[in-house]
Amino acid sequence: MQEKQNKSLKNKAAIGIFDSGLGGLTVMSAITKLMPKENIIYFGDTAHVPYGSKSKKVVTNFALGISKFLVRHNVKLIVVACNTASAFSLETLKKYIKVPVIGVIEAGSVMAAENTKNKKIAVIGTEGTIKSDAYAKEIKKHDKKIKCFSRACPLFVPLVEEGWLDNKVTEQIIKIYLNDIVNKDIDTVILGCTHYPLLKNTIQKVVGKKISIIDSATAVAFEVQKLLKEQNLTNSTGKGSLAFFVSDSPEKFQKLGSKFFNKKIINVTKVEI
Ligand code: DGL
């Protein structure tokens, strides 16, 4: 009886998701669409964003602090929605955090490796993600013959934060960043950053329709669903409650977040970690 009650409590526990700021809401949006009954706690480290230009040590310290915060809220699983934190800190988190931890890089890499026909993939992301080479390493695990071309696109995050998703300047900047890799005859591009899905249409316009764009958010949502099923942790009777925590300005997060989440955001609390 007691065991059954504990089990049900575990199923009802929330999924924890974190990112350096707003961008991880694209991953949360994919998860809520696929699993609307799951309760979710989101943490956006808005006091320390951007992670993309910071060192591995600094990002890993933030990621550990946030994961411990989520564990104190009894989450049953943690999704590292931030690509930079996934690239830098996943191994450390898996070592020190007592609930399962899923990053975004493996799911996106598998999806891209399965999609490419000519075995040429481009990866775009923050400076940290690209320097870590995490996507290329993961893709090679899947298929050694695949060639990866990567490019850091540091201006994309501020463009998205500014809401410049499809104007002429954005299109021009995308062209400058992607020209070289498009000329390598790639057939697949991985959007290796939480913010880039919002630029997907403009990127598609620049690279052309023949190139597939992989957005790892959906792939991660399927991975979360699979893991919950495997570990018997699915919440099939929940109400899908959502809570948001940030390390700075709840008002700004609430105002800009709806763009990433595709829904109005309420219930945002500022916390110190
Ligand atoms: N969330 C980050 C990522 O996916 C992008 C924003 C940042 O640099 O913190 O890499």
Describe the structure.
There is one protein chain. The chain is of the alpha/beta class and 273 residues long. The chain has two domains: 2-103 and 218-270, Rossmann fold; 106-216, Rossmann fold (3-Layer(aba) Sandwich), CATH 3.40.50. The protein has twelve helices and ten strands. The strands form two sheets. A six-stranded parallel beta sheet has the order 4-3-1-2-9-10, with helices on both faces. Helix 12 links the parallel strand 9 (242-246) and strand 10. The protein starts with a helix and ends with a strand. The model has no long low-confidence stretch (mean pLDDT 95). It binds D-glutamic acid. Residues 19-20, 23, 49-52, 82-84, 125-126, 129, 157, 193-195 line the site of D-glutamic acid.
Enumerate the distinct ligands.
Answer: D-glutamic acid
The secondary-structure element order is HEHEHEHEHEHHEHHEHEHEHE
Shape: globular
Mean pLDDT: 95
Number of domains: 2
Counting DSSP H or I runs of 4 or more residues, the number of helices is: 12
Strand order of the largest sheet: 4-3-1-2-9-10
